[in-house]
Amino acid sequence: MKRRTRGVIEFVLLAITIIASVPVQAETAKVPMRDGTKLALDYYLPAEAGPAFPVVLVRSTYDRGYGAQIAPLFTVKGYALAIEDTRGRGGSDGKDSPFADDGWGKNQDGVDTVNWLRKQPWCNGKIGTWGESALGITQSFLAGAGGAIEAQSIGVAASDFCGQGVYQGGVFRKALIEEWLKRQESPGILELWRSHPTYDSFWTYFNTESQTRLVDAPGVHWGAWFDIFAQGTINSFVLRQHQGGPHAKNNQKLIMGPWTHGPKQRSGEMKFPDNFNFDIPGYEIRFFNHWLKGEDNGIMREPAVVYYTMGDCDDPKAPGNEWRKADDWPPVATQETAYYLAPNGSLTTELATVEAGSRSYTYDPGNPCPTLGGQNLFLPSGPHDQRSVSARPDVLTFSSPPLDAPIEITGAVKVSLYVTTDAPDTDFTAKLLDIYPDGRQMLMLDGIQRVKFRKGRDKADPLPSGSVGKVDIDLWSISLIVNKGHRIGAQVSSSNYPRFELNPNTGEDFPGKELRPAKNSVHMGGQNASALLLPVRR
Description:
The protein is an alpha+beta fold. The chain is 19% helix and 30% strand. It folds into 2 domains: 3-166 and 207-301, Rossmann fold; 334-537, Galactose-binding domain-like (Jelly Rolls). The chain contains 12 helices and 23 strands. The strands form 4 sheets. The chain has a 10-stranded mixed β-sheet with strand order 1-2-4-3-5-6-9-10-11-12, sandwiched between helices. β9, α10 (230-243) and β10 (252-257) form a beta-alpha-beta unit. It is globular and about 75 Å long.
């Protein structure tokens, strides 16, 4: 079993160990696709008498052999499990090209597989889909192609694979993509994806958000604040809940926890209370029982959103660190509150007190600011103390005064900067910090924006040297209570490596032989009011 495959099923191991003594036996089939290619599929049937069962389908970019480990979770509940290697993977024929044949293109392998399942004597016509990460993404492609399914459970998956996975803020997600493709052993894909640095027609196919109106299945969307695809999980829920087909609309569920790439994964250097976990497998079974078996178990009368609001991990009496429920996302009324960056390093909500000015630094791609936590998969992830990088001359740190009362931040976080650079192109990074009374600068969110894509990902628009340009950096979403006595912090730089690829400052999309330093400036006050924009609960 590949290293990554172990991680894919980690979140269901507890449930599996409880029932692991239940024997399961796979039957293997070769499923024909519309172009004649045959995909390998294993299916596992319940021990109880049939003749037919509702089916849970897993379409995997990894080895389908781990089906024996997850099958008991479903077969003891009366479901057949079908697990299929995607095209060119494992025992399946064809050329491997991640997700390119799973949706609404020339090949529609997910749709063809569902149609094949419906014809099997052991399928009663009710089909749900299941899986996390890449297995969640294949589900989104299937639903976007109009696959006739009754329910889905999609974990930690991107909704826009380009913008959330490969080129966040127009910058290549180096550590994530290079290591994932290395483990996938997918030849030529890295070069292919790197050859499309702009959001062109190649990438529009990989944006499942554009297919929302064709999605007609109820769904569970579960994710995590420190996950690599955190915003994708929220976007999928919101779009399907409000813009999906008649069976999708108002039949979606959202779960967001304080994890990295799955439940049971504690986050970085913050230890949340023991309530930090959630019974995802149990919730999924309840959801499938309702939609695939017609069981009136009350799950659809429960609030649509369950989310964890994080808080001070040192003070057991601090607000937060609790699960909450809501009917929609965003879950509470908030006011977008600007915390203005000031040249003296302060953050303030009073723009009138910010003296107009700027702070400058030299970003040298030969000596980038190192990654220290964040929404990573193969690097240390989650909240990490940023003090070791805040001392660098190419990092600007800002902080509010100590809070005299807790402040709740729930929703989308952004940083708006007014900048200049003497380079043909450069990047700006931003971080949201929860600064503890002992000085720890805990990273809660971060993001990046390439300057030439500040007006859109589809076309480069370089900022002329010396001209002031507005750069908006999307830090995605969070639910966090910054405790009394803490300070709200922000950091600005131009690199976060190897989480994000270096900008060579030459105008090229990737570093080559020439790497040039850039003098970058952040302007503040007056008409150039750079700010951290927080959704503060009213």
